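Project outcomes to date are best conveyed with an example. Our students and postdoctoral researchers have been running inverse folding experiments weekly, and each run begins with a structure described purely in tokens. The record below, which covers 162 residues, was selected by the lab manager from last quarter's runs and is presented without edits.
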């Protein structure tokens, strides 16, 4: 134990003689050189490749954003064009439908007018036929009435004369 305590006394004496917290001996420049070497090695082996990878990733992301914005603008432009084309097509379809309806109404009106004219013509023809038959019937009746009147007159005269 005495040798241990002597040893501690020697260490304490050496610490007091060294001057305290910082010793300006050969270890300080050696540690500075080691720190600089470590910084250079870390910079070349770790920080530069990592920085390049980060820069490449940033470039990739930037390019993708630009391409996505261009695609989005193109899609919006295409969508507007399709919507305009769809609206034009709808307008054309509505005009075609309106024209078809007008043509159908015109055809129906024309067909109805023709049917009414044909019915009127048939009615007039039937009326003429009836008028003709009526006239013939009156003529026939007049002849019969004349014949019967003569017979009655002849009978009356023969009965008056007899």
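After processing, the design step wrote out the following sequence:
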């Amino acid at each position: 134990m005495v040798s241990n305590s002597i040893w501690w006394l020697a260490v304490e004496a050496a610490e007091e003689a060294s001057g305290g917290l910082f010793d300006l001996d050969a270890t300080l420049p050696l540690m500075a050189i080691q720190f600089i070497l470590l910084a250079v090695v870390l910079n070349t082996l770790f920080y530069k490749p990592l920085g390049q990878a980060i820069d490449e990733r940033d470039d990739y992301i930037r390019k993708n954003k630009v391409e996505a914005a261009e695609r989005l603008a193109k899609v919006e432009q295409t969508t507007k064009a399709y919507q305009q084309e769809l609206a034009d097509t709808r307008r054309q379809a509505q005009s075609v439908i309106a024209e078809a309806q007008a043509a159908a109404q015109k055809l129906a009106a024309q067909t109805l007018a023709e049917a009414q004219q044909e019915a009127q013509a048939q009615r007039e023809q039937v009326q003429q036929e009836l008028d003709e038959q009526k006239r013939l019937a009156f003529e026939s009746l007049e002849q019969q009435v004349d014949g019967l009147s003569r017979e009655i007159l002849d009978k009356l005269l023969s009965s008056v004369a007899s």
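The first helix runs from residue 2 to 18. Residues 28-125 form one domain. The training component of this project remains on track.
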